[in-house]
Structures are given as structure tokens and as C-alpha cells.
Design goal:
Endonuclease III, domain 1, nuclease, iron, DNA-binding, about 220 residues, Endonuclease Iii, domain 2, globular, 12 helices, iron-sulfur, 2 domains, mainly alpha, single chain
Length: about 220
DNA sequence: GTCCTGTGAC
DNA sequence: GTCACAGGAC
């Protein structure tokens, strides 16, 4: 059993797809809320990020964020953690978006790798957040790599590259380059990472049990 | 090393 | 009740 990296990755996604079935993930949400969500969910779970979004209520638009004083903004997004940092990040994001007149159609016109560069230049947006915005807000095929993907794939025998971009490339070359697929597969990863493949794994009923090397494989 | 909260285990 | 832990970016 010496499968290639690509074969393992294909096998993992196929198995997860069979287990969890099809579902829509994020592709129909309002673009700016997706962008905010991508920042608010950093270093926390979606539950906390959602509380922050709920607290923002009617300010949940680029104009709303721009108009809200930094301290007020921080106060509202408190439940997501690192709220002072994240308030600055949301401001930076909004300022960048203002350059496009808050028009997602204009953003979508930018070529993918160029747009990724632009997003990465915004303070507080790293690889993962940039890719989440690319897929779920602009519908460009950029695969989101996260802690779950690292954990799940390394536990199943993938020699996971340390650098984000290298890992992303490895995953992207293993699956067809389609936005819907990227969006859905990342959803599968998140779902599985939360239900089964936690740092201290819940292996009972895990669909990947037959190929899993256990929780302690060096990634 | 720093930034922070919510949860779940004890 | 305390407290370790999960979770990205700079």
C-alpha cells in the first residue's frame, strides 16, 4: 500500500463525499459578509464568528463598518476573540473594498492571482483568509487550506508541505479546478475536522478509519 | 512572542 | 468553579 500523494487526496475526498453527502457551502452568501466572516472566524470557530456578525446587525455592510468608530466596532465583535486586532482588520478590508466602490462585480473582474496578491497585501489577511474570500466571495477556484486539512491529510498519509502555498498546490493539482468543487471540498474538510478529526480525535464511526495512521503522525 | 474568547473537560 | 485548549496573522 504505497499510494501516491494524489491518490490519497482523491481517496480522502471521495470517502468524505460518500459519508457526508452533498451540501451547499457558502457560495450563496452575501459577498461582503463572507469577507467579514473570513476575518472574524480566524482563530476561533464559526459559532463565535457568527455572534460577532449578529452583534454588528445593521452595521453589517461596508458602509456600516466604515462609519463605525474603531472602538465601537471592536466592542461589537468581542465574541470572536482578538477583537482589537480584528477591528483593525475589518477596517483595512473595508478600505480596500472602497477602492472598488464596494462593488463585487468590479472585484471579480480582477485576474485571480492578481486579486490574491491584493488581498494578501491587506493587513490581517493571510493565505487562508485570502483563499476563503477568493472562493466564497468572488467564486474563483482557490483552495482553502486550514488546520483541519493539514490534520486530516497528514493523518491519512500525505506528507504535508510546511509552506501554505506548497500544500495548496498539492491539493489543487489533485482535484478538478472548479469553484463549486473547491467550495464543497473545503466544507467537507471542515465538517470532518470538527466531527471526527479533532486534535484529540473522535474516531468512533470515522469514515477514514481504514486509511488513518493515527493522531500522532508527524506532519 | 503577541493578540483573546467560548467551550468543554475536570 | 477553574483551566487547558482550539484557532491565523504578523
Amino acid at each position: 500500500m504505497n499510494r501516491s500523494q494524489t491518490e490519497i487526496i482523491e481517496h480522502v475526498f471521495e470517502t468524505l463525499q460518500n459519508h457526508f453527502g452533498c451540501f451547499e457551502w457558502w457560495l450563496n452568501e452575501a459577498p461582503f459578509e463572507v469577507m467579514m466572516g473570513a476575518i472574524l472566524v480566524q482563530n476561533t470557530n464559526w459559532n463565535n464568528a457568527e455572534k460577532a456578525l449578529t452583534n454588528l446587525a445593521e452595521h453589517c455592510s461596508p458602509q456600516g463598518i466604515a462609519a463605525l468608530p474603531l472602538e465601537k466596532l471592536a466592542e461589537r465583535i468581542r465574541p470572536s476573540g482578538y477583537y482589537n486586532q480584528k477591528a483593525l482588520k475589518l477596517k483595512a478590508l473595508t478600505q480596500w473594498y472602497e477602492g472598488y466602490n464596494y462593488d463585487i462585480a468590479l472585484v471579480k473582474q480582477v485576474e485571480q492571482s492578481l486579486l490574491r496578491q491584493e488581498l494578501l497585501a491587506i493587513k490581517g489577511i493571510g493565505g487562508e483568509t485570502a483563499d476563503a474570500i477568493l472562493v466564497y466571495a468572488t467564486h474563483k477556484p482557490s483552495f482553502v487550506i486550514d488546520a483541519y486539512a493539514r490534520r486530516i491529510l497528514s493523518r491519512n498519509g500525505v506528507k504535508v508541505p510546511k509552506r501554505y502555498d506548497d500544500f495548496q498546490q498539492l491539493v489543487e493539482q489533485a482535484i478538478p479546478r472548479q469553484t463549486e468543487l473547491y467550495a464543497y471540498y473545503h466544507g467537507l474538510i471542515v465538517e470532518h475536522g470538527q466531527q471526527f478529526c479533532r486534535p484529540k480525535p473522535k474516531c468512533d464511526g470515522c469514515p477514514l478509519l481504514p486509511t488513518c495512521l493515527g493522531p500522532d503522525v508527524a506532519s
